[in-house]
Amino acid sequence: MWFNRMELEIWFDKYQYAVDYDIGESAVKALSVKDIDIDLGKILLRYGYHTGRPDLKEALAEQYPGLSGDHIIVTTGASEANFIVVSALVKPGDHVVIEHPNYPSLYEVPRSLGCDVSLYTLKFENGFRPDLAELKKKITPQTKLVSLTHPNNPTGSMISEEVLHSVIELVESKDTYLLFDETYRHMASDEKLLPPAAALSPNVVSIASMSKCYGLPGIRTGWLATKSPFILDSAVAIREQLSISNNSLSEEIALSVLRRKDKFLADARTRIEFNRKIVADWMSKQNDFEWVYPEVGVVCFPRIKKYVNVDPEEVYRLLAEKYRTFVVPGRCFEMDERHFRIGFGADPGEIEIGLANLNIALNELAF
Ligand SMILES: Cc1ncc(COP(=O)(O)O)c(C=O)c1O
Question: Are the folds of 7-26+262-365 and 45-259 the same?
């Protein structure tokens, strides 16, 4: 087992706190403790339950028809949930199929565990939509795990309900598992909201967190949900080695927000839809950039057009260092360097200035 640092996290470490205009983050603008209006004075700072506070697990289970709190394990973010699920299901040499582009951890964890990783790539030319026939070709009788993320980061693409059902039939027929990353699920409007995947089959495990839709990445609270007793049992064993239990302050904050989730999610969606329009209006005036309109979520993955003579990496660096504006380079997602991620969860004014700076930096360097 050998872990490499992720280019994406190196980039974040270097620049995110050094800028004024963050148009790269993939979460809705972060809330403060004051925004949540919560009294933490009563919380006992003892070890917690190994799988999460029962009332928090019940609150999380409400979104998964047919599941109860017993089917949930609360984790340190969706990141830990991903690590746990992959560690539970694979051993070195096992074949896995991971969607790409994606939050890099989704493929870095199986790589680090010594798996044979096949990337299944969403293509710009297909509007970053999943292609079931392509996915089918990647799955072999040896495949132990298929992993998809929708709404997708960084493309903002969305799997249709029909294709999701077909993927689940496929993994069931191959006797393998689907890890479905639903971290951005609640950013979808009611009409576009997918059924939570874990509710659809015992061969599926959903992972998600409070980070993106609620603007609470700092509490590091996520979860996995599944009907599979095997995954649940293995998961507790792994989580005991990683972190024993959850942070009690974070669990209290998560529960308090979930009890008022309709309000918090409605506020987040209003902000996201307003900002999506700002980015779309800006994009409609661009000659040097092209994109796939992000159907759902808070990120998109445009690219600098081929004919523009420029070193894209220099654009992202100049943007951060001179114009104090943060986007995420495509190489951080193992994609062509002309691509970059824009995140639009911040205040509208910050996004407008950040986008204008993007034009300035490109014009300064293009020849
Ligand atoms: C698809 C996806 N999954 C998981 C994560 C990890 O987030 P967290 O550990 O904060 O829940 C991210 C973060 O960007 C992500 O985009």
Answer: no
Q: What is the DSSP code (8-state) at residue 21?
A: E
State the distance from the centre of ligand 1 to the C-alpha of 208, rounded, in angstroms. Answer: 8
- Nearest of 163, 161, 123, 167 to residue 143 by alpha carbon: 167
Topology (CATH) of 45-259: Aspartate Aminotransferase; domain 2 (3.40.640)
Closest-CA residue to 144 (of 79, 94, 209): 94
Distance 39 CA to ligand 1 centre (A): 27
177: β partners: 145
Distance 220 CA to ligand 1 centre (A): 10
Residue 16 amino acid letter: Q
Over residues 58-103, the pLDDT tens digits come to 999 999 999 999 999 999 999 999 999 999 999 999 999 999 999 9
Domain boundaries, the chain: 7-26+262-365, 45-259
> Which amino acid does the sequence have at 195?
P
Which residues sit with their C-beta closer than 6 Å to ligand 1?
A: 26, 77-79, 103, 149, 153, 181, 183, 209, 211, 217, 222
Q: What is the pTM of this model?
A: 0.97
Which residue's CA is the closest to the ligand 1 atom numbered 16?
103
CB-CB contact of 213 with 184 (8 Å): yes
Distance CA(20)–CA(22), nearest Å, equals 6
- CATH superfamily name and code, 7-26+262-365: Aspartate Aminotransferase, domain 1 (3.90.1150.10)
